[in-house]
Amino acid sequence: FAQDKPFKIGLILPMTGQQATTGRQIEAAAKLYMAQNGDTVAGRKVQLLVRDDTSLPDMTRRLAQELVVNDKVNVLAGMGITPSALATAPLATQSKTPLVVMSAATSSITEASPYVVRTSFTLPQVSVPLADWASGNGIKKVVTLVSDYGPGIDAEKYFSQRLSANGGQVTEALRVPLRSPDFAPFLQKVRDAKPDALFVFVPSGASAAVMKQFLERGLGKAGIRLIATGDVTEDDQLNAMGDGALGVVTSHHYSAAHPSPLNKQFVQAFEQANKGLRPNFMAVGGYDGMRVIYEALKTTRGVGDGDALLAAMKGQVFESPRGPVSIDAQTRDIVQNVYLRKVERVDGQLYNVEFDVIEGVKDPGKSR
Ligand code: DHB
């Protein structure tokens, strides 16, 4: 019987290289979830098989293939960056294996396979509310600076369209390479253009570098405001960015400073289990992804069939450390609150302090 065998989750993450913080955050969160909720669900022992894809999509696909064919995993999960998720989606379809995307955030990923379920966020979801905030706060001319791949292009497009609809204007749209970017020449261009604000999206692992160079180039002192998606002020690296980051306004779905009782418990437990490491939005994507898998396994009474699990993942509604969320049964994408936050010093540490919320935001990329 299937019930006598372990239930296997193949968790593929970048554990080395630029995206290594994504891997360490999600792995730690998945392990915390299992420590808190037990490793036996519906009578089956749950096994987590963690693999490092070094964020190379060919490697992600090869590891996924091995996990499905040799290890016979019931669920694939992780996916640090968009190209990894897109490379793995066809295999999820062919093998009818649910693919729980815990990190990658390009809108179209959920459309690449009917077996994708997402617990992270999308860039359109957070970029539109930031454009509205900017327009409401005297920001008219903006230069955008994004990583030149899926999520960056989504962020640029949805921010820019919304700002224009509000009567503002993106005067220049700059794109930097995903890997080892040198921001200096781009930031010099921004300094010369003197917009009201610079809007930035770079993936979490590249954010400390962009912040450092923004500050070194003196853009803030030149009167150019930095506004960004929360990837740029993510909680794993925020403290290390220093006081220059104070006052930066971002929009995102998770802050370690989110003031709910559930989040306070989550942050405390995560820090305690990980030598004081603060959880960032990747950790919450991983933690909630495990919740979605555990609940699907319970609902299906441990049978472990891919189609049954997928059906039981669709439509889940629960409270996350980030706030109330649901998995849209039609799109399989996450519906969640988007918060506006400002970097502030709290008890001697830098945090993204939430000051406004837009509730129950669906991915705007799906309403085309
Ligand atoms: C993606 C990766 C990130 O690290 C991030 O912060 C946002 C999006 C991605 O590749 O989809």
Bound molecules: 3,4-dihydroxybenzoic acid
**Low-confidence segments:** none
* CATH topology grouping of the largest domain: Rossmann fold
Q: What is the percentage of strand-forming residues?
A: 25-35%
Residue share in helix: 25-40%
What is the annotated CATH architecture of the largest domain?
A: 3-Layer(aba) Sandwich
Number of helices: 11
Radius of gyration: 20 Å
The helix/strand series, from N terminus to C terminus, equals: EHEEHEHEEHEHEHEHEHEHHHEEEE
The CATH class of the largest domain: Alpha Beta
Number of strands: 15
- Shape label: globular
Give the total of domains: 2
Structural class: alpha/beta
The end-to-end distance, rounded to whole angstroms, is 45 Å
Q: What can be said about the biggest beta sheet? A: 9 strands, mixed
Instruction: Assign the CATH superfamily of the largest domain.
Output: Response regulator
The overall pLDDT average reads 97
